Backbone:
């Protein structure tokens, strides 16, 4: 091989090695000063505990030992180090620390955090659900728009479930009251916050959430109806059918007789012709025969539509519904989906788990209705 070609290959190899080195490992270990440089490190590089000196604005605070900050290049999680002074979103901080691979993306373990001022939060990048699920928005200050499907207010855990069209995102908002959260259900909202990620132990992304530091970071673009139960009733059988003035995605109201309640999980109702499976976390006891109105979001089920994120009102009581006797083949057709039926068959086996009992029966009996 010619000498000039060997030298050229060696120079090319040297260039590749130098280009792959982390920015903070050059010049005798000078600190990394930009968040984007830290986020570009591989897990192996970040494990080297490279020195860091950053200045940025706090975008969300978990506790005195963990928060998110963002500089002009990107955002990053800061935590698992010293306890910082009391911080809130909008504080400007100067910090020193070292890199760490984190559990998903690189993070900073701080050794010194100083509060040096206040400023506005940075402009939020508008993102889609696909953008969030790509993973590169982890720890970034972003903005999304979607329809609020559900609200939950447990102690220290105020959340909204927002449908962005391509998927649903959990929004954590500790500064909204339970009443304010519930008023947002079925509203179209614009939300600013820090994108957080759910991941497994193999550093693989499984979901995202948005952490909202202030109440003003949730803006209503299209409010929900003041009284959703005041809207006209729809027959259960009309769900997901063509309507010239239909409103896609919003809650609808149906009514029926209770067939079965699985408290805090599900409700089954039926009218004269159709049954409906309803997913609801609403507390309260119902018995077969109770009359209810239900509002919720229609969605496709395995055989027939179902209703998700629903609420119900009891409007009356009556006798428990009588089952309709069907042949096993009729039951499997889906036409009786979610209705109360009776089937004659030979019991073969019975199994139990924590939530239900399953019966295995022989459906080879003759049809005695003929």
Residues:
């Amino acid at each position: 091989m010619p000498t000039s070609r060997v030298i050229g290959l060696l120079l090319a190899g040297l260039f590749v090695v130098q280009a792959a080195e982390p920015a903070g490992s050059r010049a005798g270990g000078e600190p990394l000063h930009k968040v984007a440089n830290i986020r570009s490190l591989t897990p192996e590089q970040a494990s080297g505990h490279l020195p860091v000196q950053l200045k940025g604005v706090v975008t969300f605070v978990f506790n005195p030992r963990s928060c998110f900050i963002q500089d002009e290049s990107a955002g990053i999680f800061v935590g698992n180090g010293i306890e910082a002074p009391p911080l809130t979103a909008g504080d400007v901080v100067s910090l020193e620390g070292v890199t760490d691979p984190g559990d998903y993306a690189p993070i900073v373990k701080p050794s010194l955090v100083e509060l040096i001022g206040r400023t506005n939060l940075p402009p939020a990048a508008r993102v889609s659900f696909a953008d969030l699920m790509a993973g590169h928005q982890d720890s970034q200050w972003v903005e999304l728009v979607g329809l609020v499907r559900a609200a939950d207010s447990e102690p220290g855990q105020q959340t909204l479930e927002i449908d962005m069209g391509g998927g649903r995102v959990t929004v954590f908002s500790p500064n909204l009251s339970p009443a304010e959260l519930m008023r947002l259900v079925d509203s179209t909202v614009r939300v600013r916050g820090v994108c957080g990620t759910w991941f497994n132990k193999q550093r693989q992304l499984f979901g995202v959430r948005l952490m909202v530091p202030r109440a003003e970071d949730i803006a209503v673009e299209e409010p929900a109806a003041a009284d959703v139960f005041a809207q006209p009733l729809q027959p259960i059988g009309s769900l997901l059918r063509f309507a010239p003035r239909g409103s896609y995605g919003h809650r609808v109201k149906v009514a029926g007789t209770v067939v079965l309640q699985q408290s805090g999980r599900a409700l089954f109702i039926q009218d004269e012709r159709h049954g409906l499976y309803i997913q609801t976390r609403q507390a309260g006891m119902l018995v077969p025969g109770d009359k209810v109105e239900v509002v919720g979001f229609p969605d496709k089920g395995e055989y027939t539509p179902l209703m998700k994120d629903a609420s119900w009102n009891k409007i009356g009581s009556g006798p428990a519904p009588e089952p309709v006797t069907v042949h096993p083949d009729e039951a499997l057709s889906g036409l009786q989906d979610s209705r109360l039926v009776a089937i004659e068959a030979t019991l073969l086996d019975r199994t139990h788990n924590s939530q239900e009992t399953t019966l295995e029966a022989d459906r080879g009996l003759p049809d005695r209705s003929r």
Helices lie at 3-20, 35-39, 43-46, 129-133, 178-183, 328-332.
